[in-house]
Amino acid sequence: MRILVVGHGGREHALVRALANDGAEVFATLANPGMTRQARSIDVAPDDLPGLVEAAALLAPDLVVVGPEGPLVAGLADVLRSSGHAVLGPGADGARLEGSKAFAKTFLNRHGIPTARHATCTTVAEALAVVHRWGAPLVVKADGLAAGKGVVVAQTIAEAELAVRALMVERRLGDAGATVVIEEWLQGPEVSLMALCDGRRLFAFDPCRDHKRLQDEDLGPMTGGMGALCPVPGVSAAQVADWHATVLTPTVAGLQRDGIDFRGVLYAGLILTREGPKVLEYNVRFGDPEAQAVLPRLGLGLADLLLATAHGELDRAPRVSSHGVAVTVVLSADGYPTSPRTGDVLRGLEEVEAQQDVVVHHAGTRAVGREVVTAGGRVMSVTGLGCDLKHARSAAYRGADGIHFEGAHYRKDIGAA
Length: 417
Hints:
4 domains; Dna Ligase, domain 1; about 25% strand
């Protein structure tokens, strides 16, 4: 099977690795140094829609897997499908679940799926009025795509006002913050549910947990994600079944009622409140770093599973099983998430990659001669695999400790009790 993976981050490296292990011939856009060991790089950017259509015409892949959210929101899947290609990823209509927080909230309300009380604001005056009427704490979210950095949990009214002005007046996130969604602040542990959806049916992966804050104990600024673990400790099969019945199944039914043929990854970020699970957000692709914890646990068969999803035939797909526990630790560059430093040489990669219970996924890296240097905020992730959480966590931190570059930072509490 020939597969084109769009994207070149940690999530896409995890996809390339899993698909290559299945025996697929894999191509990837602007592949990072880790990906080039198992995929052939093509010189087309993930957001170059005409270039990707041309590349797909030349490569004639059996499947195109779109990793990042940006191209999906821009309509890449629609363009490729209209050219006759099988694509894992929703069209622009389904991608609005992630591309617009306001659209997602309207969808949730319309289909009776539990979520936080919220208000969509298109002017500064409207947003500030909501802030003062509701009081703190509350959550201020940019409506559009913001690479995981468009959420501010404001503990005071002053912090909420600053967040509103940063998004709507200063436009720190550009057009993504032209509209904001203000939500009530909810308390409880968070869980990430990811499933493949073929338009009618679901194949659900084990729930996982992402760690968004930069520092230990969930302190510091929000990031794209600093670590993950899968499965989530202490979660029962009955709980998972309840989350599916409360969230995932109604979401698929709602998409069908709205006339949206959703073929791709459906991701629901949940918070487990005293009143039950509530949806914090939707994503329309594998999470990053969640994919780096979920995919290495899978047995063979992912390529056939993704192809069946793209064709709307999950009922004919092989059953792919998961084994053991995975803990993923993200190594970030000095200055991340605001102004990450680049160009620092990485040491210790070969030794860590040789460890049997460790998987290294590159993200913000590039090759300079024979060396690999940092080229982004989240440089790479290290996944430890084990029969239980203790062994997986030990492997992950043994791997993280073995990789060195100037200014390297990673949380020390991923998977801690």
